[in-house]
């Protein structure tokens, strides 16, 4: 005897006197293999959003800047409101919403004490005996002493300062220039400003300007000049050169030798303050100082945001 039952797609067969039964076609939920494969592939390929501490910069910044540049002609106020809604302003160090550099993170930076730093090269704790501009290191650079008259930096280059610089230069958060200049301005004592110097930015290479869309040196110099009440004069040109970040001290010095060219009009400024973002080995500032000296500057001082220490 054979009995067939159809209930929810189950077909049962009963055979023989023992009434043994077997399920030969159990019901299964419908599946969509192509759709599921696409979903699994999309989830597997989707990258996780890095945090500010992991990536050093938040990926929202370039999109925000592109929106502001695109919508600038149609009303920057409305564009800023839309950008703030889509990509809220966050601290470059702790990623807290509100400011590009929050007050707690600004206070927790490794600030350099002017009275303990070397008065010549600005190295922290070098007021009595400096380990950065001594005879040994100057002999490596082929000099007796630093070419500039004085140098100062606002903070030591630690992890927090590195995140600020990367977010500003590589992630396009250009508003950080103002926060950095605010920290740099107190490091210029009144004696530096007595002869009304001109702020001269250390220019970026043409490749760096194309990659970032702006000259970070000029923006930092302008923000600092606004706070000190001085004028900015971009009187240096920088031909093509190798990236300094992967070079050792000797290679940095050799790479920057004669890499800056004074532009016409540079001789009109007898006293200048060279501005750069990071002082690493001094090779860039040494070469820039040589260029403005050739142009006729009698007094050259240097001011940077961070100092590698």
Automatic annotation (TrEMBL):
Which family does the record assign? Belongs to the ComF/GntX family.
Q: Name one Pfam family in it.
A: Pribosyltran
Q: Which residues does UniProt call coiled coil?
A: none
State the name under which the record lists this protein.
Answer: DNA utilization protein GntX
Q: Which organism is it from?
A: Eggerthella lenta (Eubacterium lentum)
Q: Where is the Phosphoribosyltransferase domain?
A: 217-306
InterPro entries per UniProt:
ComF/GntX_DNA_util-trans, PRTase-like, PRTase_dom
């Amino acid at each position: 005897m054979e009995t067939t039952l159809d209930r929810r797609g189950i077909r049962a067969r009963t055979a023989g006197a023992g009434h043994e039964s077997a399920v030969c076609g159990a019901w299964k939920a419908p599946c969509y293999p192509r759709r599921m494969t696409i979903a699994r592939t999309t989830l597997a390929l989707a990258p996780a959003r890095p945090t500010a501490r992991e990536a050093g910069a938040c990926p929202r910044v370039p999109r925000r800047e592109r929106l502001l540049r695109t919508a600038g002609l149609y009303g920057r106020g409305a564009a800023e409101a839309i950008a703030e809604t889509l990509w809220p302003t966050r601290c470059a160090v702790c990623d807290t919403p509100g400011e590009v550099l929050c007050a707690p993170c600004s206070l927790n930076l490794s600030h350099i004490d002017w009275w303990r730093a070397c008065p010549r090269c600005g190295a922290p704790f070098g007021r009595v005996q400096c380990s950065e501009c001594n005879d040994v290191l100057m002999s490596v650079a082929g000099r007796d002493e630093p070419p500039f008259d004085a140098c100062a930096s606002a903070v030591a280059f630690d992890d927090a300062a590195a995140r600020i610089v990367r977010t500003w230069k590589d992630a396009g958060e250009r508003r950080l220039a103002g926060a950095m200049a605010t920290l740099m301005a107190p490091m210029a004592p009144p004696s530096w400003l007595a002869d009304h110097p001109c702020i001269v930015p250390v220019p970026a290479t043409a490749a760096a300007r194309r990659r970032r869309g702006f000259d970070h040196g000029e923006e930092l110099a302008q923000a600092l000049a606004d706070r000190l009440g001085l004028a900015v004069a971009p009187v240096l040109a920088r031909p093509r050169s190798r990236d300094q970040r992967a070079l050792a001290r000797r290679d940095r010095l050799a790479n920057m030798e004669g890499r800056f060219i004074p532009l016409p009009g540079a001789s009109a400024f007898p006293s200048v303050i060279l501005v750069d973002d990071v002082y690493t080995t001094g090779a860039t500032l040494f070469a820039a100082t040589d260029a403005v000296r050739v142009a006729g500057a009698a007094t050259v001082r240097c001011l940077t945001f961070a100092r590698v220490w």
